[in-house]
Amino acid sequence: MSNLNESPRLTGFLANGLPKLLFAVGFAGLGATAILWKQNPTQAAFSYLFSFLVFLSLTIGSLFFVIIQHLTRAGWSVVIRRIPETFAMNAWVMSILFLPIVYAIKTLYPWSHADIVNADHLLLGKQGYLNLKFFLIRAIAFFAIWIGMARYFYKRSTNQDTSGDKQLTLSMQGFSAAAILLFAISVTFAIVDWAMTLTPHWYSTMFGVYFFAGSAVCAFATMSLIALTLRKAGFLTDIIRIDHFHDIAKFLYGINIFWAYVSFSQYFLYWYANIPEETVWFQEHFFGSWNTVAALLALGHFFIPFVVFMSKHARRNLKVQCVVVIWFLMMHVTDLYWLIMPNFSHTGIHVTLTDVTTFFGIGGIYLALFWKRLASKSLIPNKDPRLSESLHHHT
Amino acid sequence: MTNKPFGLLAEYKTPGELLHAAERLRDAGYKQFETYSPFPIHGMDNAMGINDSILGWIVVTCGATGLLSAIALQTWVSTSAYRIVTSGKLLFSFQAFVPVCFELMVLLSGFGAVFGMFFLNGLPQLYHPLFKKPTFRTVTSHGFFVTVESTDPRFSIDDTARFLHETGSTAVEVVEE
Amino acid sequence: MSVSVPIDDPSKRVTLVEGGHDFKSVSDTVCRPVETKAPKWWMISFGIAVSLLLLILSMLGKLVWSGVGVWGLNNPVMWGWDLVGFVFWVGIGHAGTLISAILFLFRQKWRTSINRFAEAMTVFAVICAGTYIAFHVGRVWVAYYLFPIPNSMAIWPNFRSPLMWDVFAVSTYFTISLLFWFVGLIPDLATIRDRATTKTRKIWYGIFAMGWRGANRHWMNYERAYLILAALSTPLVLSVHSIVSFDFAVSQLPGWHTTIFPPYFVAGAIFSGFAMVVTLMVLARELFGMKDFMTMHHLETMNKIILATGTMVGYAYGMEFFMAWFSGNQYESYAFLNRAFGPYSWAYWTMISCNVIFPQLFWFKKIRRSIPIMFIISIIVNIGMWFERFVITVTSLHRDFLPSSWFYYSPTYVEICQFIGSFGLFLTFFLLFLKYLPIIAISEVKGVMPAANPHYHGEEH
């Protein structure tokens, strides 16, 4: 077992070359987006929103993981906690990447047009909530909450790397209960604001939970993928062991079932009641080839991983796990694509160049910052009081 | 006519000693031996060298049967046996069939898990030679035991008893059939 | 009696079994109620429980004799105390499986000393819920129409009806919970069998122990079966209360038809179930002297879960209200305003204060660890959860789309007595369980003791 006092650091390509490469990809992607934006602002704005939400969901899901580990006083997860902590710290860059959405409000959100609102008595009723000023105040509040919470946990956790102060763990545990409340409220209303009000007449009380479940799937899958990458590069090979991967896989499996449960319930209740103002959303999202995408999600996001990951042997096999988590990420991206893009491309799925440029643009910068930050500190919270429990973890 | 004994029963004091004894028996080439404890001991399967439980496969089979029969039953009832349109739904409304599909899948999987476990363990078995031994009655409270059965090719009362003593057993006795 | 001191060192874990027990003394302590004469308080409580049981039996007799007209239901309030009672009991029945299954999967070892208890509660609560389902059909002797059985009328059930899903969900849940409970009991029944001093006990516990003898090959399959049952029960718990919520949510009725209902009902069920477990546990640990196993740490953890689920329920109330306004749907908004300020506002505010406000006291560690306060709050929570079902069921119905049929529903004595009597049904079973079965999972508790680790050498490492 490795020495607890030595702090494993990220070095080599992952620490230096990769962030540079990703920055290059990111700026190229964003640059291309800027050029393409001129040609078709609506298309670019929707693509951008989609890509933004993909990486936002990763940030949100990672933040959730960090909070819940402290809330439940989890021991097994200590060795992997630095990865989600670092992802959550990217909340600040998401707040900057949000600016183009602010710029494109009028393109994206019908309720931002006074003439549309005045002609629509439902929207008039919602004006108290759906107005530009309040929308921006809320967005600032959400980012303030996320950035603040991410920093709270990251600072304390990394300070503990040097001080080994157990009090820090206690204070993180103490704050985690309030944090989960703030988290639930901010995530719910953020996604209501940014995705649900694309169709401002439509509403669903489950919507926040739906986005949260997808985010958690995304965060667990990414966590596993990053850990696998580190392992491949020779880092933490005897610290993040099969047992930890097995546990991540189990959580991923469980949360994916939860995702299926939530998305099915949302669809099912509206299908059954068959009230026009509610089914209109599904009408749009099931139109033409979007229907195929929805079927693909049911099959690919839920059923296939459900069967493949059922066996313990599959979950403990890192090659299988690598394939499955990449599959999960693809499905999660498809899920968000299906959530956002029918608002733009009404007749069916239509992948455009801006989808790609925004995805790589935001993703490049996001991941470059992630790797840079990961390299700046110890790869594990090496003086966490529960580290020994995590190192000896057996499933 | 003398009955062939069932085997030898050896008692141990702690889970650790029991695990150790099982490892020794495994390494000595015994096959027909068994350990008994008031609770499952972590690592004992490996120490005894026995294969993983096959219960999972039984459960998967039962679950698939439940799922398929639920689909078949609902489809047949709704589209053929009793065709009635309710609340404007199609006769074959797969969405509405999901809850019952899920429940029957779980129900049959559960039966598979419980009755499969009984089957694999040969339970209920209300008679067993070991129940005649008063010392064995502590097995469900605080006793740790090993039996080596006489069907094992390496079994011989004297040698095996000596071997069991060597592994740290506090008492070894013969169990009659 | 030593008071357990909370450990503030995060590198250490709380001891789950206090009082310096060894394996034998665990068996001795847990088996004692089974092996000794019933204490006086038990006899008295049992007497009360059985008289309440007679009350529900007479009410059900009246119901069968006269028909469901003896209930105060009338158009438009077609569902009243019967459905409230059903959802109330099914909800309570969720904690057992949650503790057994979900906490098992999350490796929450503290569950071992309370899971038996909670599982028993589950089984009995589902029986109580079942009486409502079985008898609300009116002609209970033809209740078999609910099942897809060939019958002389050549009628088959309508699988597109949520009530049909309920039949499958509740019966599956009952069966699986019973099996789960029984599987957990087998090694402990064998313990009682092996300790038996009387012939009757030896025979009866022997039959149900099925010849268990603690063989490792048996434990291997047994543990696998337990794990699989846990993995099956976890989505089952979610599905059952979700399906109960579908009874409401698939309709078009404002106040019922909302997408958050499934997870919201599940959270509420766990909330009420945990509260019931705390109520019963506080009493049982005192009366049976099992404080070494059901420690303050256990109770505190339970209270934290009550706080968490209570807050989730609060989140759902908030979301419903927000979306009712946000939807711009006048019926939806009216339904919620009517809940809060209409003729049933007293019920609504009782619900809010019991479910959302009182549990917030559990933010304070002192309160989480105070026996009298947690006992009171646990009862308040269950009152609140009963009111939640009442509010959902009755307020949404009593003012329907046709104002001329608006109606203020009040229960008749039959409904009230039936509900009170259902506690008799529950308590009769529960007291029998306390007396005749090991109320703590003996083998599981032993398994989490440090000495159970084969690498244990007298101290924890």
Name the poorly predicted regions of chain B: none
The largest sheet of chain C, given as strand count, sense and whether it forms a barrel, is:
none
Q: Measure the end-to-end span of chain C.
A: 27 Å
Beta-strand content bin of chain B: 5-15%
Shape annotation of chain B = elongated
* Mean pLDDT rating of chain B: 85
Total of helices of chain C: 16
Fill in the CATH topology of the largest domain in chain B. Answer: Alpha-Beta Plaits
Q: Fraction of residues of chain C in helices?
A: 55-70%
Strands of chain C, total number: 0
> What class do helices, strands and sheet pairing of chain B give?
alpha+beta
Tell me what the structure shows.
The complex is a heterotrimer of chains A (395), B (177) and C (461). With 395 residues, chain A is mainly alpha-helical. Chain A contains 18 helices and no strands. Chain B is α+β, with helices and mostly antiparallel strands and 177 residues long. Chain B is built from 5 helices and 4 strands, in the order βαβαααβαβ. A 4-stranded antiparallel beta sheet of chain B has the order 2-3-1-4, covered by helices on one side. In chain B, helix 3 packs antiparallel against helix 4. Chain C is mainly alpha-helical and 461 residues long. Chain C has one domain: Formate dehydrogenase/DMSO reductase fold (Up-down Bundle), CATH 1.20.1630. Chain C has 16 helices and no strands. Chain C has helices at 23-35, 40-66, 81-92, 94-105, 115-136, 162-195, 199-209, 216-249, 261-287, 296-326, 330-341, 345-357, 365-368, 371-398, 413-436, 442-448. In chain C, helix 5 (115-136) runs antiparallel to helix 15 and helix 9 packs antiparallel against helix 10. The longest helix of chain C has 34 residues, at 162-195. The relative contact order of chain C is 0.17. Mean pLDDT of chain C is 86; it is low at 1-6. Chains B and C meet through helix 1, strand 2, helix 2, helix 3 and helix 4 of B and helix 1, helix 6, helix 8 and helix 16 of C.
Concise description?
The complex is a heterotrimer of chains A (395), B (177) and C (461). Chain A has 395 residues and is mostly helical.
List keywords for this structure.
heterotrimer, A: 395 residues, mainly alpha, 18 helices, B: 177 residues, alpha+beta, Alpha-Beta Plaits, 2 domains, four-stranded antiparallel sheet, 5 helices, 4 strands, 47% helix
How is the topology of this model organized?
The complex is a heterotrimer of chains A (395), B (177) and C (461).
Chain A: H1 17-39, H2 41-71, H3 82-88, H4 91-97, H5 99-103, H6 105-108, H7 114-118, H8 121-125, H9 132-163, H10 166-194, H11 207-232, H12 242-273, H13 276-285, H14 290-308, H15 312-316, H16 318-340, H17 353-376, H18 387-391
Helix pairs in contact in A: 1-2, 1-17, 2-3, 2-9, 2-10, 2-11, 2-16, 2-17, 3-9, 4-9, 9-10, 10-11, 11-12, 11-16, 12-14, 14-16
Chain B: E1 5-12, H1 15-27, E2 33-36, H2 44-48, H3 55-81, H4 94-121, E3 144-149, H5 157-166, E4 171-176
Antiparallel strand pairs in B: 1-3, 1-4, 2-3
Chain C: H1 23-35, H2 40-66, H3 81-92, H4 94-105, H5 115-136, H6 162-195, H7 199-209, H8 216-249, H9 261-287, H10 296-326, H11 330-341, H12 345-357, H13 365-368, H14 371-398, H15 413-436, H16 442-448
